[in-house]
Design goal:
single chain, 30% helix, globular
Amino acid sequence: MSDTDTGTGAAGGGTGFPYRLVATDLDGTLLRSDGTVSRRTREALAAATAAGAAHLVVTGRAVPWTRHILDDLGYDGLAVCGQGGQVYHAGEHRLLTSVTLDRQLAGVALAKIEAETGPLYLAASRDGLDGDILVGPGYEVGGSLPAVPFTDAADLWTAPLNKIYLQHPTMSDDELAGAARRAAGGFVTVTMAGAGIVELLPLGLSKATGLSLAARRLGVKAADTIAFGDMPNDIPMFGWAARGVAMANAHEELKAVADEVTSSHDEDGIAVVLERLAASAATRV
């Protein structure tokens, strides 16, 4: 879907697979509802990498909430975390790049949003390989992710942050994200990464930012990339990659800009596409 897309798929550089980079979101995309990756999807990704393509995880999760998943998967390559703000080497457990919020601007943005919406429930991701996830009163954390509670909002600003998470007692995620953009879109980037996950990021930051940095390290261009996702935070990634594939369970905003919609994350949607591409490439050899 980038302006480099010819509509016929990018050349795989003689790899036997039509793309050199397969970029996948984690939650709602690569991971099934139970947090696992199916055997079929593992095998389809392994076949693509054996044919010369690289697999790159591109997730909204910050590194501390991503490391254990990558370790469990045996994933040892680069990963883009924190909505594009962090490039992480999973095999070396090393943070290669990291972008942080301007805390003064973020404080102004938060005040402007709350002036429109009323009090919010807040959480925040501190920068670094082992940065704490701070969770304030009322904020609901999905699953059993590790978090450090706080009661004084001043605690948010005592160390560098990658992002701030917002929840509202009555507004829907779409309503909250819209209100936040209207109130503070000139100070921060506002994105929605999942149910109950509206985020404030450094202005201009998106998954496309980190994806382009990681791709450059891998020597791969946008025209060589296929991307899979499920939420509005994947829209910039689809805009950068040559082809964007939305899962059947994806948010309607992402489906609207996708090149195709595959099966859901619980029905091997990534594998369905990769297997088709591999079979098509084989018939051309």
